Amino acid sequence: MGYSQFLNMIPEATLVAILVIAFIADFASSKHARRSWFNPLMCVLFLAQLVVTLLCNEPTTAFGNMYVTTPAVNVMKAILAGGTLIVVIQSRLWLSREDTAFKEGEFYMLVASTLLGMNMMMSAGHFLMFFLGLEMASVPMACLVALDKYRHHSAEAGAKFVLMATFSSGIMLYGISFLYGAVGTLYFEPFCYMLQENNNTPLIIVGLVFFFSGLGFKISLVPFHFWTADSYQGAPTTVTAYLSVVSKGAAAFTLCAILMKVFFAMVDQWEMMLAIVIVLSITVANLFAIRQSELKRFMAFSSISQAGYIMLAVMGNGQLGVAALSYYVLVYVAANLAVFTVISVVEEKNGGTTEMDAYNGFYATNPKLSFLMTLALFSLAGIPPFAGMFSKFFVFMAAAEQGSFMAYFVVFIALINTVVSLYYYLLIVKAMYIKKNDTPLPTFKSDFNTKLALAICTAGVALFGICNLFYDWIAAANV
Question: What is the pTM of this model?
Protein backbone atom coordinates (compact mmCIF):
# COMPACT_ATOMS: atom_id res chain seq x y z
CA MET A 1 0.00 0.00 0.00
CA GLY A 2 1.61 3.22 -1.18
CA TYR A 3 1.26 6.81 -0.09
CA SER A 4 -0.73 7.49 -3.24
CA GLN A 5 -3.78 6.16 -1.43
CA PHE A 6 -3.90 9.39 0.54
CA LEU A 7 -5.07 10.98 -2.73
CA ASN A 8 -8.32 9.07 -2.20
CA MET A 9 -8.80 10.99 1.06
CA ILE A 10 -8.92 14.54 -0.29
CA PRO A 11 -11.17 16.10 2.43
CA GLU A 12 -8.97 14.64 5.17
CA ALA A 13 -5.76 15.71 3.40
CA THR A 14 -7.14 19.25 3.11
CA LEU A 15 -7.84 19.31 6.86
CA VAL A 16 -4.26 18.19 7.57
CA ALA A 17 -3.04 21.05 5.38
CA ILE A 18 -5.25 23.49 7.35
CA LEU A 19 -3.76 22.13 10.58
CA VAL A 20 -0.21 22.70 9.33
CA ILE A 21 -0.99 26.22 8.07
CA ALA A 22 -2.67 27.15 11.36
CA PHE A 23 0.32 25.85 13.33
CA ILE A 24 2.86 27.76 11.22
CA ALA A 25 0.80 30.97 11.29
CA ASP A 26 0.39 30.76 15.04
CA PHE A 27 4.05 29.90 15.67
CA ALA A 28 5.56 32.49 13.32
CA SER A 29 3.56 35.57 14.31
CA SER A 30 2.88 37.59 17.44
CA LYS A 31 -0.51 37.96 19.13
CA HIS A 32 -0.88 41.59 18.07
CA ALA A 33 0.29 41.01 14.51
CA ARG A 34 -2.20 38.24 13.77
CA ARG A 35 -5.23 39.94 15.34
CA SER A 36 -6.32 41.45 12.02
CA TRP A 37 -5.64 38.60 9.58
CA PHE A 38 -5.65 35.25 11.40
CA ASN A 39 -9.43 34.75 11.58
CA PRO A 40 -10.07 35.83 7.95
CA LEU A 41 -7.30 33.45 6.85
CA MET A 42 -8.90 30.52 8.70
CA CYS A 43 -12.34 31.42 7.35
CA VAL A 44 -10.94 31.28 3.80
CA LEU A 45 -9.23 27.94 4.54
CA PHE A 46 -12.38 26.35 5.96
CA LEU A 47 -14.36 27.74 3.02
CA ALA A 48 -11.85 26.01 0.74
CA GLN A 49 -12.38 22.85 2.79
CA LEU A 50 -16.13 23.12 2.17
CA VAL A 51 -15.65 23.60 -1.58
CA VAL A 52 -13.20 20.69 -1.84
CA THR A 53 -15.59 18.42 0.06
CA LEU A 54 -18.48 19.41 -2.21
CA LEU A 55 -16.40 18.56 -5.27
CA CYS A 56 -15.46 15.12 -3.92
CA ASN A 57 -18.62 13.23 -4.83
CA GLU A 58 -17.19 9.93 -6.07
CA PRO A 59 -17.00 6.75 -3.95
CA THR A 60 -13.42 5.85 -3.00
CA THR A 61 -11.58 3.35 -0.82
CA ALA A 62 -8.11 3.28 0.71
CA PHE A 63 -5.88 1.05 2.83
CA GLY A 64 -7.55 -2.26 2.18
CA ASN A 65 -11.11 -0.94 2.58
CA MET A 66 -10.44 0.38 6.06
CA TYR A 67 -11.32 3.79 4.60
CA VAL A 68 -14.53 3.75 2.54
CA THR A 69 -16.44 6.81 1.42
CA THR A 70 -19.62 7.25 -0.62
CA PRO A 71 -21.54 10.25 -2.02
CA ALA A 72 -23.83 10.14 1.04
CA VAL A 73 -20.82 10.34 3.38
CA ASN A 74 -19.36 13.21 1.36
CA VAL A 75 -22.66 15.10 1.65
CA MET A 76 -22.55 14.81 5.45
CA LYS A 77 -18.88 15.86 5.45
CA ALA A 78 -19.85 18.95 3.45
CA ILE A 79 -22.68 19.79 5.88
CA LEU A 80 -20.33 19.50 8.86
CA ALA A 81 -17.64 21.52 7.06
CA GLY A 82 -20.23 24.27 6.50
CA GLY A 83 -21.20 24.19 10.17
CA THR A 84 -17.54 24.41 11.17
CA LEU A 85 -17.06 27.40 8.87
CA ILE A 86 -19.94 29.23 10.58
CA VAL A 87 -18.46 28.44 14.01
CA VAL A 88 -15.06 29.82 12.92
CA ILE A 89 -16.74 32.98 11.59
CA GLN A 90 -18.64 33.64 14.82
CA SER A 91 -15.62 32.82 17.01
CA ARG A 92 -13.78 36.06 16.20
CA LEU A 93 -15.60 38.14 18.81
CA TRP A 94 -14.80 35.64 21.57
CA LEU A 95 -11.19 35.18 20.43
CA SER A 96 -10.59 38.95 20.36
CA ARG A 97 -10.75 39.14 24.17
CA GLU A 98 -7.45 39.73 25.94
CA ASP A 99 -7.71 36.52 27.94
CA THR A 100 -8.39 34.35 24.88
CA ALA A 101 -6.49 36.04 22.02
CA PHE A 102 -3.32 34.05 22.74
CA LYS A 103 -5.30 30.80 22.37
CA GLU A 104 -6.57 31.59 18.87
CA GLY A 105 -4.15 29.29 17.08
CA GLU A 106 -4.90 26.42 19.45
CA PHE A 107 -8.63 26.87 18.87
CA TYR A 108 -8.33 26.58 15.08
CA MET A 109 -5.99 23.59 15.31
CA LEU A 110 -8.27 21.78 17.73
CA VAL A 111 -11.32 22.46 15.55
CA ALA A 112 -9.53 21.13 12.46
CA SER A 113 -8.33 18.07 14.42
CA THR A 114 -11.84 17.35 15.65
CA LEU A 115 -13.34 17.65 12.18
CA LEU A 116 -10.59 15.37 10.82
CA GLY A 117 -11.51 12.71 13.38
CA MET A 118 -15.21 13.00 12.50
CA ASN A 119 -14.45 12.58 8.80
CA MET A 120 -12.37 9.48 9.49
CA MET A 121 -15.11 8.10 11.72
CA MET A 122 -17.79 8.54 9.04
CA SER A 123 -15.59 7.00 6.33
CA ALA A 124 -14.53 3.99 8.38
CA GLY A 125 -14.94 0.53 6.87
CA HIS A 126 -13.44 -1.19 9.91
CA PHE A 127 -14.36 -1.03 13.59
CA LEU A 128 -10.86 -0.04 14.71
CA MET A 129 -10.68 2.72 12.08
CA PHE A 130 -14.04 3.91 13.37
CA PHE A 131 -12.77 3.88 16.95
CA LEU A 132 -9.59 5.77 16.05
CA GLY A 133 -11.62 8.41 14.24
CA LEU A 134 -13.94 8.71 17.23
CA GLU A 135 -11.02 9.28 19.60
CA MET A 136 -9.39 11.72 17.16
CA ALA A 137 -12.58 13.75 17.47
CA SER A 138 -13.17 13.29 21.23
CA VAL A 139 -9.73 14.19 22.64
CA PRO A 140 -9.42 17.61 20.88
CA MET A 141 -13.06 18.28 21.77
CA ALA A 142 -12.25 17.83 25.46
CA CYS A 143 -9.47 20.41 25.07
CA LEU A 144 -11.92 22.79 23.38
CA VAL A 145 -14.44 22.43 26.21
CA ALA A 146 -11.75 23.29 28.77
CA LEU A 147 -10.13 26.03 26.65
CA ASP A 148 -11.54 28.85 28.79
CA LYS A 149 -10.39 27.21 32.03
CA TYR A 150 -10.04 30.42 34.08
CA ARG A 151 -13.52 31.69 33.22
CA HIS A 152 -16.88 30.33 34.40
CA HIS A 153 -16.85 26.54 34.77
CA SER A 154 -14.89 25.57 31.69
CA ALA A 155 -12.33 23.42 33.54
CA GLU A 156 -15.10 21.53 35.35
CA ALA A 157 -16.96 21.02 32.07
CA GLY A 158 -13.78 19.71 30.46
CA ALA A 159 -13.18 17.26 33.31
CA LYS A 160 -16.74 15.92 33.08
CA PHE A 161 -16.46 15.62 29.32
CA VAL A 162 -13.17 13.70 29.59
CA LEU A 163 -14.55 11.31 32.22
CA MET A 164 -17.73 10.56 30.27
CA ALA A 165 -15.81 10.24 26.98
CA THR A 166 -13.40 7.79 28.65
CA PHE A 167 -16.17 5.63 30.10
CA SER A 168 -18.17 5.61 26.87
CA SER A 169 -15.09 4.73 24.80
CA GLY A 170 -14.24 1.91 27.20
CA ILE A 171 -17.79 0.51 27.01
CA MET A 172 -17.75 0.76 23.23
CA LEU A 173 -14.35 -0.91 22.88
CA TYR A 174 -15.53 -3.69 25.20
CA GLY A 175 -18.54 -4.22 22.96
CA ILE A 176 -16.35 -4.28 19.84
CA SER A 177 -14.17 -6.95 21.47
CA PHE A 178 -17.30 -9.07 22.02
CA LEU A 179 -18.29 -8.64 18.39
CA TYR A 180 -14.82 -9.61 17.19
CA GLY A 181 -14.79 -12.67 19.45
CA ALA A 182 -18.15 -13.80 18.09
CA VAL A 183 -17.60 -13.12 14.38
CA GLY A 184 -13.82 -13.07 13.90
CA THR A 185 -13.51 -9.92 11.79
CA LEU A 186 -13.79 -6.17 12.28
CA TYR A 187 -14.29 -5.23 8.62
CA PHE A 188 -17.82 -3.95 8.12
CA GLU A 189 -18.67 -5.81 4.90
CA PRO A 190 -17.61 -9.37 5.86
CA PHE A 191 -18.93 -8.73 9.38
CA CYS A 192 -22.39 -8.05 7.89
CA TYR A 193 -22.32 -11.23 5.79
CA MET A 194 -21.22 -13.42 8.69
CA LEU A 195 -23.83 -11.84 10.96
CA GLN A 196 -26.61 -12.97 8.63
CA GLU A 197 -25.75 -16.59 9.38
CA ASN A 198 -25.63 -16.26 13.15
CA ASN A 199 -26.96 -13.12 14.84
CA ASN A 200 -28.72 -14.32 17.98
CA THR A 201 -25.83 -15.47 20.16
CA PRO A 202 -25.64 -13.73 23.58
CA LEU A 203 -22.11 -12.51 22.80
CA ILE A 204 -23.25 -10.63 19.68
CA ILE A 205 -26.30 -9.14 21.40
CA VAL A 206 -24.24 -7.92 24.38
CA GLY A 207 -21.63 -6.52 21.99
CA LEU A 208 -24.32 -4.63 20.07
CA VAL A 209 -25.78 -3.19 23.30
CA PHE A 210 -22.36 -2.03 24.53
CA PHE A 211 -21.50 -0.54 21.14
CA PHE A 212 -24.81 1.31 20.97
CA SER A 213 -24.41 2.56 24.54
CA GLY A 214 -20.94 3.94 23.86
CA LEU A 215 -22.09 5.89 20.81
CA GLY A 216 -25.23 6.96 22.68
CA PHE A 217 -22.95 8.92 25.05
CA LYS A 218 -21.43 10.78 22.09
CA ILE A 219 -24.85 11.74 20.73
CA SER A 220 -26.15 12.44 24.28
CA LEU A 221 -29.20 10.22 23.98
CA VAL A 222 -31.16 9.44 27.16
CA PRO A 223 -30.11 7.71 29.44
CA PHE A 224 -26.53 8.53 28.37
CA HIS A 225 -27.04 12.31 28.55
CA PHE A 226 -26.02 13.30 32.08
CA TRP A 227 -22.80 15.06 31.04
CA THR A 228 -24.48 17.27 28.46
CA ALA A 229 -25.99 20.16 30.44
CA ASP A 230 -22.91 20.76 32.64
CA SER A 231 -20.49 20.56 29.71
CA TYR A 232 -22.61 22.85 27.54
CA GLN A 233 -22.95 25.40 30.32
CA GLY A 234 -19.27 25.43 31.29
CA ALA A 235 -17.72 25.36 27.83
CA PRO A 236 -17.14 28.60 25.89
CA THR A 237 -20.33 29.41 23.98
CA THR A 238 -18.62 29.07 20.60
CA VAL A 239 -17.39 25.59 21.58
CA THR A 240 -20.86 24.70 22.86
CA ALA A 241 -22.28 25.65 19.46
CA TYR A 242 -19.71 23.44 17.72
CA LEU A 243 -20.32 20.55 20.11
CA SER A 244 -24.10 20.75 19.76
CA VAL A 245 -24.28 20.50 15.98
CA VAL A 246 -21.09 19.28 14.29
CA SER A 247 -20.11 16.61 16.80
CA LYS A 248 -23.69 15.40 17.21
CA GLY A 249 -24.31 15.27 13.47
CA ALA A 250 -21.20 13.18 12.78
CA ALA A 251 -21.95 10.68 15.56
CA ALA A 252 -25.62 10.35 14.55
CA PHE A 253 -24.76 9.73 10.90
CA THR A 254 -22.13 7.14 11.83
CA LEU A 255 -24.50 5.27 14.14
CA CYS A 256 -27.15 5.33 11.41
CA ALA A 257 -24.74 3.93 8.80
CA ILE A 258 -23.40 1.17 11.07
CA LEU A 259 -26.83 0.04 12.27
CA MET A 260 -28.27 -0.05 8.76
CA LYS A 261 -25.31 -1.61 6.96
CA VAL A 262 -23.35 -3.63 9.50
CA PHE A 263 -26.14 -4.77 11.85
CA PHE A 264 -28.82 -5.08 9.18
CA ALA A 265 -29.37 -8.74 10.09
CA MET A 266 -30.19 -7.72 13.69
CA VAL A 267 -32.73 -5.06 12.78
CA ASP A 268 -35.41 -6.50 15.07
CA GLN A 269 -33.12 -6.24 18.10
CA TRP A 270 -31.74 -2.76 17.55
CA GLU A 271 -34.98 -1.18 16.35
CA MET A 272 -36.70 -1.97 19.64
CA MET A 273 -33.71 -0.61 21.57
CA LEU A 274 -33.60 2.50 19.39
CA ALA A 275 -37.34 3.12 19.76
CA ILE A 276 -37.09 3.12 23.57
CA VAL A 277 -34.10 5.48 23.52
CA ILE A 278 -35.81 7.86 21.07
CA VAL A 279 -38.98 8.12 23.17
CA LEU A 280 -36.95 8.68 26.35
CA SER A 281 -34.64 11.24 24.71
CA ILE A 282 -37.42 13.38 23.27
CA THR A 283 -39.72 13.20 26.30
CA VAL A 284 -37.23 13.52 29.17
CA ALA A 285 -35.27 16.31 27.47
CA ASN A 286 -38.43 18.30 26.77
CA LEU A 287 -39.59 18.02 30.37
CA PHE A 288 -36.22 19.10 31.74
CA ALA A 289 -35.91 21.96 29.23
CA ILE A 290 -39.07 23.57 30.63
CA ARG A 291 -37.39 23.86 34.05
CA GLN A 292 -34.23 25.62 32.86
CA SER A 293 -33.46 29.26 33.57
CA GLU A 294 -29.93 29.30 32.11
CA LEU A 295 -29.94 29.54 28.33
CA LYS A 296 -27.00 27.23 27.57
CA ARG A 297 -28.43 24.50 29.81
CA PHE A 298 -31.76 25.09 28.09
CA MET A 299 -30.12 24.56 24.70
CA ALA A 300 -28.38 21.44 26.05
CA PHE A 301 -31.70 19.75 26.75
CA SER A 302 -33.01 21.09 23.45
CA SER A 303 -30.09 19.36 21.70
CA ILE A 304 -30.85 16.08 23.50
CA SER A 305 -34.42 16.28 22.25
CA GLN A 306 -33.21 17.12 18.73
CA ALA A 307 -30.89 14.10 18.87
CA GLY A 308 -33.96 11.95 19.45
CA TYR A 309 -35.64 13.44 16.38
CA ILE A 310 -32.46 12.90 14.33
CA MET A 311 -32.34 9.21 15.29
CA LEU A 312 -36.03 8.87 14.43
CA ALA A 313 -34.93 8.77 10.79
CA VAL A 314 -33.02 5.53 11.46
CA MET A 315 -36.28 3.73 12.34
CA GLY A 316 -37.16 3.57 8.63
CA ASN A 317 -33.99 1.54 7.96
CA GLY A 318 -33.67 2.64 4.33
CA GLN A 319 -32.38 5.24 1.89
CA LEU A 320 -35.16 7.66 2.83
CA GLY A 321 -34.02 7.46 6.46
CA VAL A 322 -30.40 8.37 5.63
CA ALA A 323 -31.53 11.26 3.42
CA ALA A 324 -33.95 12.50 6.11
CA LEU A 325 -31.22 12.32 8.77
CA SER A 326 -28.74 14.28 6.63
CA TYR A 327 -31.35 16.89 5.77
CA TYR A 328 -32.36 17.22 9.43
CA VAL A 329 -28.72 17.80 10.40
CA LEU A 330 -28.39 20.45 7.66
CA VAL A 331 -31.41 22.38 8.95
CA TYR A 332 -30.39 21.86 12.58
CA VAL A 333 -26.93 23.29 11.90
CA ALA A 334 -28.43 26.51 10.51
CA ALA A 335 -31.05 27.02 13.24
CA ASN A 336 -28.98 26.01 16.26
CA LEU A 337 -25.92 28.02 15.23
CA ALA A 338 -28.14 31.09 14.75
CA VAL A 339 -29.34 30.78 18.35
CA PHE A 340 -25.83 30.26 19.69
CA THR A 341 -24.51 33.21 17.67
CA VAL A 342 -27.01 35.49 19.42
CA ILE A 343 -26.20 33.96 22.81
CA SER A 344 -22.49 34.44 22.14
CA VAL A 345 -22.71 38.09 21.11
CA VAL A 346 -24.99 38.95 24.06
CA GLU A 347 -22.62 37.16 26.43
CA GLU A 348 -19.56 39.03 25.10
CA LYS A 349 -21.25 42.44 24.99
CA ASN A 350 -22.97 42.27 28.37
CA GLY A 351 -20.70 40.85 31.02
CA GLY A 352 -21.00 37.14 30.31
CA THR A 353 -24.73 36.78 31.02
CA THR A 354 -26.49 33.66 29.73
CA GLU A 355 -29.48 33.74 32.09
CA MET A 356 -32.86 33.63 30.36
CA ASP A 357 -34.22 36.45 32.54
CA ALA A 358 -31.58 38.77 31.10
CA TYR A 359 -33.43 38.56 27.76
CA ASN A 360 -36.60 40.10 29.22
CA GLY A 361 -37.44 43.11 27.05
CA PHE A 362 -34.62 42.28 24.63
CA TYR A 363 -36.78 43.25 21.63
CA ALA A 364 -37.12 46.83 22.89
CA THR A 365 -33.35 47.41 22.75
CA ASN A 366 -32.18 44.94 20.07
CA PRO A 367 -35.11 44.18 17.73
CA LYS A 368 -33.04 42.72 14.87
CA LEU A 369 -31.27 40.14 17.03
CA SER A 370 -34.57 39.28 18.71
CA PHE A 371 -36.24 38.73 15.35
CA LEU A 372 -33.44 36.51 14.00
CA MET A 373 -33.38 34.46 17.19
CA THR A 374 -37.16 34.04 16.98
CA LEU A 375 -36.89 32.70 13.43
CA ALA A 376 -34.26 30.18 14.54
CA LEU A 377 -36.32 29.07 17.55
CA PHE A 378 -39.42 28.65 15.37
CA SER A 379 -37.38 26.47 13.02
CA LEU A 380 -36.14 24.32 15.92
CA ALA A 381 -39.75 23.95 17.08
CA GLY A 382 -40.89 22.90 13.60
CA ILE A 383 -43.24 25.79 12.91
CA PRO A 384 -44.10 26.30 9.20
CA PRO A 385 -42.95 27.71 6.85
CA PHE A 386 -39.45 27.46 8.32
CA ALA A 387 -37.03 24.68 7.39
CA GLY A 388 -37.42 22.89 10.72
CA MET A 389 -40.99 21.91 9.84
CA PHE A 390 -39.85 20.18 6.64
CA SER A 391 -36.97 18.38 8.38
CA LYS A 392 -39.32 17.01 11.03
CA PHE A 393 -41.80 15.97 8.35
CA PHE A 394 -39.13 13.95 6.53
CA VAL A 395 -37.92 12.12 9.65
CA PHE A 396 -41.52 11.32 10.61
CA MET A 397 -42.15 10.03 7.09
CA ALA A 398 -38.95 7.95 7.16
CA ALA A 399 -39.91 6.34 10.47
CA ALA A 400 -43.53 5.71 9.44
CA GLU A 401 -42.33 4.08 6.21
CA GLN A 402 -41.47 0.97 8.22
CA GLY A 403 -45.19 0.39 8.73
CA SER A 404 -45.05 -1.37 12.11
CA PHE A 405 -47.12 -0.48 15.16
CA MET A 406 -43.92 0.36 17.06
CA ALA A 407 -42.85 2.88 14.41
CA TYR A 408 -46.27 4.55 14.40
CA PHE A 409 -46.25 4.72 18.19
CA VAL A 410 -42.81 6.38 18.28
CA VAL A 411 -43.90 8.91 15.63
CA PHE A 412 -47.06 9.64 17.64
CA ILE A 413 -45.02 10.31 20.82
CA ALA A 414 -42.65 12.52 18.81
CA LEU A 415 -45.59 14.53 17.45
CA ILE A 416 -46.94 15.11 20.95
CA ASN A 417 -43.49 16.23 22.09
CA THR A 418 -43.34 18.70 19.22
CA VAL A 419 -46.14 20.61 20.95
CA VAL A 420 -44.21 20.50 24.25
CA SER A 421 -41.05 21.78 22.54
CA LEU A 422 -43.04 24.61 20.98
CA TYR A 423 -44.09 25.67 24.48
CA TYR A 424 -40.57 25.93 25.90
CA TYR A 425 -39.12 27.61 22.80
CA LEU A 426 -41.89 30.19 23.10
CA LEU A 427 -40.72 30.90 26.67
CA ILE A 428 -37.67 32.64 25.17
CA VAL A 429 -39.82 34.49 22.64
CA LYS A 430 -42.12 35.58 25.46
CA ALA A 431 -39.13 36.86 27.45
CA MET A 432 -37.85 38.91 24.50
CA TYR A 433 -41.16 40.40 23.35
CA ILE A 434 -43.62 40.42 26.25
CA LYS A 435 -41.86 40.39 29.63
CA LYS A 436 -40.85 43.77 31.01
CA ASN A 437 -37.43 44.55 32.40
CA ASP A 438 -36.45 47.64 34.38
CA THR A 439 -32.82 47.16 33.37
CA PRO A 440 -32.93 45.58 29.88
CA LEU A 441 -29.83 44.64 27.96
CA PRO A 442 -28.45 47.79 26.32
CA THR A 443 -28.57 48.44 22.61
CA PHE A 444 -25.38 47.39 20.84
CA LYS A 445 -24.06 46.88 17.35
CA SER A 446 -22.82 43.48 16.26
CA ASP A 447 -19.45 43.08 14.57
CA PHE A 448 -19.12 42.04 10.93
CA ASN A 449 -18.43 38.37 11.69
CA THR A 450 -21.54 38.07 13.85
CA LYS A 451 -23.67 39.66 11.12
CA LEU A 452 -22.20 37.33 8.51
CA ALA A 453 -22.80 34.21 10.62
CA LEU A 454 -26.37 35.27 11.37
CA ALA A 455 -27.01 36.08 7.70
CA ILE A 456 -25.84 32.62 6.60
CA CYS A 457 -27.86 30.84 9.31
CA THR A 458 -31.01 32.89 8.69
CA ALA A 459 -30.78 32.24 4.95
CA GLY A 460 -30.54 28.53 5.74
CA VAL A 461 -33.55 28.63 8.08
CA ALA A 462 -35.61 30.42 5.41
CA LEU A 463 -34.44 28.65 2.25
CA PHE A 464 -33.64 25.03 3.15
CA GLY A 465 -37.34 24.32 3.56
CA ILE A 466 -38.95 26.11 0.62
CA CYS A 467 -36.14 25.37 -1.86
CA ASN A 468 -36.17 21.63 -2.60
CA LEU A 469 -32.78 21.83 -4.32
CA PHE A 470 -31.02 21.04 -1.04
CA TYR A 471 -33.12 17.98 -0.21
CA ASP A 472 -32.82 16.75 -3.81
CA TRP A 473 -29.03 17.06 -3.55
CA ILE A 474 -29.02 14.96 -0.37
CA ALA A 475 -31.51 12.40 -1.73
CA ALA A 476 -29.55 11.98 -4.97
CA ALA A 477 -26.41 11.11 -3.00
CA ASN A 478 -28.28 8.29 -1.24
CA VAL A 479 -29.56 6.57 -4.40
Answer: 0.93
